[in-house]
Amino acid sequence: MKITAAVLDALGAAAPYATSRPLRLAELDLAPPGPGELLLRIDAAGVCHSDLSVVNGDRVRPLPMALGHEAAATVLAAGSGDSDFAPGDRVVLAFLPACGRCVRCASGEGYLCAVAAAANARGDLIGGGSRLSEDGAGVRHHLGVSAFAGHAVVDERSAVKVDADVPPEIAALFGCAVLTGVGAVVNAAAVRPGESVAVWGLGGVGLAAVLGALAAGAQPVVAIDPVAAKRDIATAAGARAVHPDDAAAALAALPGGGPDVAVETVGRAAVLAEAYRTARRGGRIVTVGLPNPAEMLAIPAVSLVADGKALIGSYMGNAIPRRDIPRYVALWRAGRLPVEVLLTATRPLAEINAALDDLANGAAVRQVMIPPEPR
Asked: Are residues 197 and 243 in the same domain?
């Protein structure tokens, strides 16, 4: 079938992206789903720094590639008769479709599945190859999803069912921002009630981490960002929000001389070093940001032992999507995880390059793109 998708042809375009237009809306051919795959109508797709990091060249991916990895969708067809999915099912898409058979998956660590990671790096579906093409030439998938489009074919292992009454623009956020941010707090850091938490960076993932810490009973939760509007969101949610210039003093005043848990979501080595430095002795430092691979982290090696600190990397919030997405949706439904505060705007897919600008300059938390109606 013919679909419209946002395609990236070259890395490293200069901002403003509304002028340089690194993403073009192209008419692509989408092959039908094979066994274990689904044909979806994309209902809403969030714009994330992981998309921006491909556009600006921080994360090198094979090109051309149809971008977008955080989405809600409706199942139109399954590629095999024994599917767990049926037409009309509403789903949230996860950006790492774990194979379910490797040692890491068997150990409950599907977020470290090497098979899925290799497929994502190639721009393939986990079942092999691409289902997208333009004039007979292959177009790569972004993280097994390619959601900046009207339709997609994905592996069933990328999809998690949700109830139909969850609005698509909210449901989409569970696939990356919530999965990663809340998971960093709940799964990777294992925050306990009454512990103090500091979060650096209040984008979609960072604010989701703030919400997750509050839902876990952390007190206080200190939210750190230079953008006043983002600090206001965190304050309204129940956190103490501070400018980065004031963070060291605010954290030093906590019991123990620093937070029990420090979460870095900015994706900069210097910020991670600051989060590590300001955590209390025995504190846990979790990083979910994706810095440019050239950035190196410098910390006093002796502090890992002498101060008993634990530095923890967390990919996709150490999440098992089919376990965690329904849990987080249930918390949202109960009013304990107000995910809607992450939503800055909904925009038509034609505005994708302008949306990248608003993300890059800090004017937005999460923007959700709405695909065009099928012709």
From this structure: yes
